[in-house]
Amino acid sequence: MTQRAEKSDGSRLYAAVHQLDRFMNRLTDILAFIGMAALIGAIGIVVVDIIWRRIGGQSLVGAVDLTQFCVMAAASWAIPYAFSAHAHVTVDLIGKNHFRAVFRIIDTLIPALCAGLMAFLLYLSWGRAMEQWNYGDVSQNLAIPMILFWGFLLSGMAISMLVCLVHFLKLLLTNENI
């Protein structure tokens, strides 16, 4: 058996990371589906509001609040899916064929850097969300607690951070030259 096969297939750590990766993929798939359903709901609210304005001559009460709420869910829960599906944009400026070893190291470190960035953004957002919680801020028309809006954002960042950490561990365990 080769060293890489022992490292990848026989390791309990690799098996645990692989299971965690599969769980995170399923979780992000579900969240993205819910987020896209919320986006469809937001579109529906806007369409109903437009029709109601034409027929009834007035706007639908709470349409802006509900639309914002739905868009917040869709955007915040799509971010972890993008990390999980590796759907981020990459640019090849130099050429990976010439510097394979360097780019393998960089490609392995990128998820760790992304996890760090998500952790930092989560930390900053948590402070602002707690301010909203303490002030008891609510939305303008329907009085939806603003902490619910922040809940989508915070959960999206936390799950994104976990997805990046799991991806980093997976890359670390599969790359034999690092």
UniProtKB/TrEMBL annotation:
<dbReference type="GO" id="GO:0015740">
    <property type="term" value="P:C4-dicarboxylate transport"/>
</dbReference>
<feature type="transmembrane region" description="Helical">
    <location>
        <begin position="103"/>
        <end position="126"/>
    </location>
</feature>
<keyword id="KW-0813">Transport</keyword>
<dbReference type="GO" id="GO:0022857">
    <property type="term" value="F:transmembrane transporter activity"/>
</dbReference>
<keyword id="KW-1133">Transmembrane helix</keyword>
<keyword id="KW-0472">Membrane</keyword>
<feature type="transmembrane region" description="Helical">
    <location>
        <begin position="59"/>
        <end position="83"/>
    </location>
</feature>
<dbReference type="Pfam" id="PF04290">
    <property type="entry name" value="DctQ"/>
</dbReference>
<keyword id="KW-0812">Transmembrane</keyword>
<feature type="transmembrane region" description="Helical">
    <location>
        <begin position="30"/>
        <end position="52"/>
    </location>
</feature>
<comment type="subunit">
    <text>The complex comprises the extracytoplasmic solute receptor protein and the two transmembrane proteins.</text>
</comment>
<keyword id="KW-0997">Cell inner membrane</keyword>
<dbReference type="GO" id="GO:0005886">
    <property type="term" value="C:plasma membrane"/>
</dbReference>
<feature type="transmembrane region" description="Helical">
    <location>
        <begin position="147"/>
        <end position="169"/>
    </location>
</feature>
<comment type="function">
    <text>Part of the tripartite ATP-independent periplasmic (TRAP) transport system.</text>
</comment>
<dbReference type="InterPro" id="IPR007387">
    <property type="entry name" value="TRAP_DctQ"/>
</dbReference>
<feature type="domain" description="Tripartite ATP-independent periplasmic transporters DctQ component">
    <location>
        <begin position="43"/>
        <end position="172"/>
    </location>
</feature>
<protein>
    <recommendedName>
        <fullName>TRAP transporter small permease protein</fullName>
    </recommendedName>
</protein>
<keyword id="KW-1003">Cell membrane</keyword>
<dbReference type="InterPro" id="IPR055348">
    <property type="entry name" value="DctQ"/>
</dbReference>
<comment type="similarity">
    <text>Belongs to the TRAP transporter small permease family.</text>
</comment>
